[in-house]
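Minutes, project huddle
Topic: does the predicted pose make sense with adenosine-5'-diphosphate bound?
PN asked that the exact inputs be recorded in the minutes so nobody has to dig through chat later. Recorded below.
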Amino acid sequence: MNTIEKIWSNILDRIAVLVSAPCYEIYFSRLKPVALKDDKLILMTEYSSVKNGIMKNLSAELNMAIRESMEKIEGVVIILKDELSSYVSSDEVPKKKEEFVPSIQKIVFQKNYTFDNFVIGDSNKYAAAAARAVAEAPGTSLNPLFIYGMPGLGKTHILHAIGNEILRNHPDMRVYYTTAENFTNDLIYSIRNSNNAELARQFREKYRNLDVLMIDDVQFLANKTSSQESLFHVFNDLYTAEKQIILSSDRPVKELTYIEDRLTSRFASGVVADIQPPSFETRVAILQKKAFHYKIDVTPEVINYIAEKEKYNIRLMEGMLKTVGYFASLNNRPADSIEFVMEALRDSSSNQSNEVNMNKIVEITCDYFGVKFADICGKKKTKELVEPRQLAMYLITVILPEIPLATIGQFFGGRDHTTVIHARDKLQQKIADDANAKKKAEDIKNLVYNR
Ligand code: ADP
Ligand code: MG
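Predicted holo structure (tokens), as shared on screen:
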């Protein structure tokens, strides 16, 4: 890299943190440093939209990036290709006409999301082992890696841990992380900003140059046909070049119903690893680690209490711990009793009570039938329990259709998603045939929305 390229690369690193991914791609990745004149860096672009767009809307970010980069330049001048000769004498102009290879935003992985900070238990040990193996030897046998699990169980953490680990061992590797949502936005921007096929081609081209591509939350691609189409090509390009692909999803491959088969079959063609809700012991270990990390002074009794309170989502569990920590620091004392914790969490849990979630639906169904929450999620299959259990499952699929069936099954004491499908179909039929069954469902639904 020559000096001007180095200067620009340092500035770009700062810009990457200051602007959104699409903005970076559309504007800043399409500038090329061509000269240094009177302490000003001359950047060239082929596109007047890039020049105008940056000058009009992004000069504050650009100037801040220059300041933060600590490069000793006074500023930049953006020129169009045909202005080049008036800024740079002919011997400075690069001899060979270099092609614009669209660059991809350099990813800054979350510093804390490392393997060291990831607590391993039975629920996630397979996913963690697969992730470690991929991080050690990307692009070899474990390709693609597909990780799935309910929200808040550590998928994003694992993806970032892989990114951190690969870059630690191979700082030059081109590792890119994006969410399926950003991938889609990025594609939309590329298409909107070009009236020719050129940018669509460039879109695909820039992914082709990667060593590792991670796409988080692929369930978001449901029904997005052009994103699926693009990902299909990107996937094939990378896979044939033996580059590593890593995907995450909140549900198993077979439940990605609105994603084309040719894509889901590829998702499942390598290693598939799931993450289950953690055991009590793992939850405690995670809370201890987080308390240490955030310097929150809590007693083991309090940790156990929080671990009991939230069983399905580590993000929420961590949120409770932070709320307690914040409350403790406000009151200038450690969180050392259950009463204190209940007080700290009172506001946050009362806020949640209006929200419709699985818990609420099951609780209300239990009240309605006079059965216990633990029994409805337990193993027993007596008639008194099967009816409310199936009805609650059905209502969850109707009221909260975004929740994956496997997640619902999990919630009901680790049942399979096929059990949920069975309950849903059975109840649908029953409600259509039987006015009494219909009334029960309506009653409970009303309670759910109005309590
Ligand atoms: P997901 O992407 O599956 O929704 P995240 O990766 O965002 O979940 O995890 C949510 C939070 O829980 C993060 O703060 C993450 O660090 C934490 N977390 C999840 N699993 C673990 C684990 N096994 N050890 C430590 N922290 C974890
Ligand atoms: Mg995530």
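Observations noted during the meeting:
- The first strand starts at residue 32 and ends at 37.
- The longest helix spans residues 314-330.
No decisions taken; revisit at the next huddle.
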